Amino acid sequence: MTTPTASDALVFFGATGDLAYKQIFPSLQAMVKRGLLNVPVIGVAKAEWTLDQLKDRARKSVTEHGGLDEAAFAKLCDLLGYVDGDYNDPATFAELRNQLGDAKRPLHYLAVPPSLFGVVADGLQASGSAENARIVVEKPFGHDLATAEQLNAMLHTVFPEESIFRIDHYLGKEPVENLVYFRFANSFLEPIWNRDHIDSIQITMAESFGVADRGSFYEETGTIRDVVQNHMLQITALMAMEPPSHEATDALRDLKAMVLRSMRTLKPEDVVRGQYNGYRQVDGVDPKSTVETYVAVRLHIDSWRWAGVPILIRAGKCLPHTVAEVAVKLRRPPRVVFNESKPGPANIVRFRLQPQVEIAIHARAKMEGQGMRGEDVELKVIEDATDDMPPYERLLSDAMSGDPTLFADQRSVEAAWRVVDPILDNATPVHFYEQGSWGPKEADHLVKDVGGWHVPTAPS
User: Fold this and answer.
1) Beta strands per DSSP E along 210-293
2) What is the pLDDT of residues 29-47, one digit of tens each?
3) What is the pLDDT of residue 396?
4) Is 321 a catalytic site residue?
5) Which segment of 141-150, 172-181, 443-452 scores lowest on mean pLDDT?
6) Residue 158 DSSP label
7) Phi, psi of 430 (to 5 degrees)
8) Residue 332: CB partners within 8 Å, gap ≥ 6?
């Protein structure tokens, strides 16, 4: 397979915005420090700023988020340019083309609302800046299946699919990548990774905090759109996909798309939505809001490997602690071998994705002393994640080099929207829950036949 040609310039729209401040500038400095970025970097925004003001903003950004490295930051400033102008004004894109100079393969990063994707794409095409270029777009990619299809169709009028990189920062996290590596690098898992040996899979993404100052955003989004349609379904696909046969960049994306296409479309009876008490008092939130801050869903994958295995997902805010974890519950042995009063818990393979990284196997072992009595033990590996490459740095570097592996493609985005589309908005009632609880009790019926919810322990 032909190795993609690296981009020879990086343009980021929304250069004065919050995402650029918190993520992009720190990632750019880190890329320079690692030797991964040595091409022109041009910010674009409508703020009536100068280049010096953008550099001041960048310095504050890296100082606050990750730390200032004077040598790397100085090199970044040498690469940095700025275009101040309206995205609807052709002069803005003419000036961008001028600053790109001899660059023939730019990467355009759109850290702007989806409503501006078409405007920017058209401006790039009209100015000649879209030819041989790549484009990176942020989530949310669409508001439902219909709008996602419209966005894809619109972008395809300017960029071919192989040049569109739909970013999901969660896929750039080291622990998420480790899910795939651990599954297929160890021979003891694959023989049992199927419906014959796995009873159920649970995926939890809990946050101990509320929506803070993002009330207006959350009113238009909700938990299903914010994390389930993208992060959670992508993790499910990684857990359920078939083994990749080679390292071609499209191999993982092909296999994930296959899983997502095999998922049943969710029905109202598969879903419980919740809202924490106090959400309606947040600035920007409708006092009668029915937007969910919690959701639990029961998924089914109609494939030979996973037929009949329930996959339970729950995500929410104001839960007991902040943690993301996958728990794979194995089927119990067919009979009780030892004469104990009751069998112990089922074996569980557990992957903790945040805040720390853990891989653990819950098992039974003999207690010390006379008699064949058992106790529960957990065999656990904890990884030091302090040196992990941050997700935006990893994803920007991959996009610059043309590697699409960690980005969502059209097939998986639209397949994921198809799964959740029927249960968006008010398709199901919203149930209230207390802050600091694990969500509304109504969600318990989804897991009644698998022994209840797996409850992640508090991070150490």
Assistant:
1) 271-276
2) 999 999 999 999 999 999 9
3) 93
4) no
5) 172-181
6) T
7) -105, 135
8) 199, 343, 346
